[in-house]
Amino acid sequence: MNDVVAGGVSGNRAATLTDVARMAGVSTMTVSRVINGHAKVAAETRARVHEAMAALDYRPNMLARGLASGRSRSIGVLTVDTTLYGPRAALGGIEKAASARDYSVTITHLTHPDRTAVETGVSLLRSRSTDGVILLQPLMSEAALFDRSPDLPLVAIHAGVPGQYPLVTVDNRRGARQATAHLLELGHRTVWHISGPEDWYESAERVAGWREALVAAGASETPVVAGDWSAASGYAAAREVLAHPGVTAIFVANDAMALGTLHAMHELGLRCPEDVSLVGFDDDPEAEFFSPGLTTIRQDFDEIGRLSVGLLLDLIETGAPSTQHLVLEPRLVVRASAAAPSA
């Protein structure tokens, strides 16, 4: 007797793989292939299996799947301060992508992300039977020095030496060039820059892109003033920059520091963009609601997460070595904080 009924199974028992296969009109092997994400299943068949799983409220036994495959179906993330928007948004993208592939995520924070801390974090994640690790935004020096464990797949985001392990980066130089060129094209004679910390990969690349745009336009280079990514440091850096006469345009290395810059301008009685134009970097969700709305460079953090998880699971599931380097293009988002200089 067929005990599969609409919305579940009879007798209040949990649905099984066989129940799903019967309702979808496929073999249990096909259901298993859909659950495990195999590519060689027709889209229509895959949809039918997912519909049957939903109708029966079927939940795959993740522990059994892990035991069968010899994997925990868990990936680890080593990350710096997640109070910062960039790491937090990238982590959100990783968690979404991992969940879509039925992997859990274990997070280890690097309070002091030096080489020892990174290696200790990797060892900790290995002891927890993590299948692989994503290294999220380490400092430049640690990315260069870190010698990954040969038995634990690893992918890096935003930092690293291409050729050592798979790497996902945003073209920070291009983004900085776009931001600086936008201000120059509006008619500003030069652009000042408030950077992030000197030992961060993103910060160094954004300084380089800013400088390249100035050189290409024949504009004079101004002193770089560094912050630490926080709004408070942006405020302090902006007070230093705005103490110079004739400042009409500032490119700030992230949106939080741009917010601090707006506050400093307000205190000094300067209007944005009438007196000083401003461009940030990241496209923090709040940037649109700054006053004025912030022109900025957008990074697609969901795509960063999807690509990094995809690279890591390819390493985990195929065992094939890879040093693939994926570079995402940033995008200029124009709002009200940048305009032509006033007469």
Annotation keywords:
343 residues, alpha/beta, 12 helices, 14 strands, 15% strand
Characterization of this structure:
Helices cover 43% and strands 15% of the residues. The mean pLDDT is 86. A hairpin with a 2-residue loop joins β1 and β2 (8-9). The chain has 343 residues and is of the alpha/beta class. It is built from 12 helices and 14 strands. α1 crosses α2 and α10 (231-241) crosses α11 (255-267).
Quick rundown:
The chain is an alpha/beta fold and 343 residues long.
Distance between the termini: 86 Å
Number of helices: 12
Query: How many E strands?
Result: 14
Globally, the shape reads elongated
Order of helices and strands: EEHHHHEHEHEHEEHEHEHEHEEHEE
Average of the residue pLDDT scores? 86
Strand content range: 15-25%
Largest sheet: 6 strands, parallel
Q: Could you tell me the radius of gyration in angstroms?
A: 25 Å
Secondary-structure topology with pairs:
Layout: E1 4-5, E2 8-9, H1 17-24, H2 28-35, H3 43-56, H4 62-69, E3 74-79, H5 85-100, E4 104-109, H6 115-127, E5 132-136, H7 140-145, E6 154-157, E7 167-170, H8 172-185, E8 192-195, H9 201-217, E9 224-226, H10 231-241, E10 249-252, H11 255-267, E11 277-279, E12 296-298, H12 301-318, E13 325-328, E14 331-333
Parallel strand pairs: 3-4, 3-5, 5-6, 6-7, 7-13, 8-9, 8-10, 10-11
Antiparallel strand pairs: 1-2, 12-14
Helix pairs in contact: 1-2, 1-3, 5-12, 8-9, 10-11
